[in-house]
Amino acid sequence: MHERGRPRVEVDYPVTLSGEGGDGTGTMTNLTITGGEISSDLPAQIGTHFRVHIHLSGARNPIDIAIATVRWQRENRFGIEFVRFEDNAKLQLEQMLNQSDV
């Protein structure tokens, strides 16, 4: 097993997904600057592309991932890799992750 380049941050954020695999909702359970893990009843085949909106706690704006690709899938969980961010979403995600590194 190889070591990941980025530490994962455990989170519990609602997400909405839309794309080739359909539309649905789920929960982001861990997150890095390059991707994350989602728990959802939405079918997610490896290689499927989704648009992902991560709804953060508080009054913060959602993080909008324009393209995320499913890299693995097990039961009702799947891992996604962020391919393209919208607007300042990457900066917003970096700031949120940096605040979590306590």
Please, could you describe this protein's structure?
It is built from one helix and six strands. It is mainly β. The protein has one domain (9-100): predicted glycosyltransferase like domains (Thrombin, subunit H). Strands 1-2-3-6-5-4 form a six-stranded antiparallel beta barrel. The mean pLDDT is 89.
CATH topology: Thrombin, subunit H
Whole-angstrom Rg: 13 Å
Number of helices: 1
For the record, the count of structural domains works out to: 1
Question: How would you spell out the order of helices and strands?
Answer: EEEEEEH
Provide the CATH architecture: Beta Barrel
Largest sheet: 6 strands, antiparallel, barrel
Low-confidence stretches: none
Q: How would you name the CATH homologous superfamily?
A: predicted glycosyltransferase like domains
Mean pLDDT: 89
Give the gist of this structure:
With 102 residues, the chain is mostly beta strands.
